[in-house]
């Protein structure tokens, strides 16, 4: 009887340790966080076609700009960055494996692939690159 209690206690402790070390528990609506490299304010590097801003926090992203009114006449609207996302409101989100995931309207949207890089001899200048339907969009960190 005593050995069962000891085994049970060790089993519970091992489970608690595993859960806390692997971060297996996530509350409702809590998917994770954005990587440290992504956090901050990003603006369009070439606002000639589309202009906008991303403000990325620990687990929130706010998208401003990139509106439907910016789509050039005769252009493919599928190439507009962040189309279909609610603008000007902090949305839940997270990043993992080179993708940004955003929850909008209660639904977790498909991941958006990104690349983050520095410009030549200026490591403090950071750029964030996305590909929207074959059109590359580059944002620069402020």
Keywords:
single chain; 142 residues; Lipocalin; 8-stranded antiparallel β-barrel; 1 helix; 15% helix; 40% strand
Q: How far from one another are the termini?
A: 64 Å
The H-and-E topology, N to C, reads as HEEEEEEEEE
Multimerization state: single chain
User: What average pLDDT do the residues reach?
Assistant: 82
Radius of gyration (Å): 20 Å
User: Which structural class is indicated by helix and strand composition?
Assistant: mainly beta
Query: What would the CATH topology be?
Result: Lipocalin
Number of helices: 1
By CATH, the architecture is named: Beta Barrel
Helix percentage range: 10-25%
Shape, principal axes of CA atoms: elongated
- Estimate what percentage of residues fall within beta strands: 35-45%
**Biggest sheet: strand arrangement:** 1-2-3-4-5-7-8-9
How is the biggest beta sheet arranged?
Answer: 8 strands, antiparallel, barrel
β-strand number: 9
CATH class: Mainly Beta
- How many domains? The number is 1
Low-confidence stretches: 21-29
Tell me what you see in this structure.
- 15% of the residues are buried.
- The protein has 142 residues and is mostly beta strands.
- It contains one helix and nine strands, in the order H-E-E-E-E-E-E-E-E-E.
- The radius of gyration is 20 Å and the shape is elongated.
- The chain has an eight-stranded antiparallel beta barrel with strand order 1-2-3-4-5-7-8-9.
- About 6% of the residues have low confidence.
- The protein has one domain: Lipocalin, CATH 2.40.128.
